[in-house]
Write a structure and sequence with these properties.
Blueprint: E1 28-32, E2 35-41, E3 49-55, E4 61-65, H1 80-93, H2 95-102, H3 112-118, H4 128-141
Antiparallel strand pairs: 1-2, 2-3, 3-4
Helix pairs in contact: 1-2, 1-3
Length: 163
């Protein structure tokens, strides 16, 4: 049996990043919902971001602005936003973890550059859910630091309450 957590500590296991990363280009990246997905800043317009994703297993990809306009860089091949997404996911989670999540053997596709070249084809998908998750994460940054539970997360059961 595990000892009870100390007061003010989370019981959730947090995986530290492989290396620290700069958030200016890719402020949000996560393997979730069967995709590697994230938000990538525009290189030409500070007011614009792109929602990029790669589907696990099929390696189909999509990139569009946060208001669902297609990325102009998708011209029969992955755009730079997708390459940045892969690079930053590798920094955050490690290449082996990302490759396994996407269903790629790291020995067959040995690095991020090769993974970018292995992407299958463009398949449109809605980016609203990814962008919404990003905005929700941003909202947490504006909360004052506290050890008290957050009301929107209060539905999680207390440690040891569920057996």
């Amino acid at each position: 049996m595990n000892p009870p957590p100390r007061a003010g500590r989370s019981t959730a296991r947090v995986v530290p990043p492989v290396r620290s990363r700069k958030l200016a280009k890719v402020p949000f990246v996560e393997p979730a919902d069967g995709r590697l997905q994230g938000v990538v800043s525009s290189g030409s317009d500070v007011e614009r971001v792109y929602v990029s994703s790669i589907v696990a297993g099929t390696l189909t990809y999509h990139c569009s602005t946060n208001n669902n306009r297609p990325c102009g860089g998708l011209r029969g091949s992955p755009c730079n936003h997708l390459r940045l997404l892969i690079d930053e996911a590798t920094v955050q989670y490690g290449y082996e973890r990302i490759a396994r999540y996407l269903g790629v053997d790291p020995l067959d596709v040995p690095g991020p550059l090769e993974l970018g070249r292995s992407l299958s084809h463009h398949e449109p998908s809605a980016g609203a859910g990814v962008f919404s998750r990003f905005l929700r994460h941003l909202a947490y940054l504006e909360l004052p630091g506290t050890a008290e539970p957050l009301p929107e997360l209060a539905w999680f059961p207390a440690y040891g309450a569920v057996r």
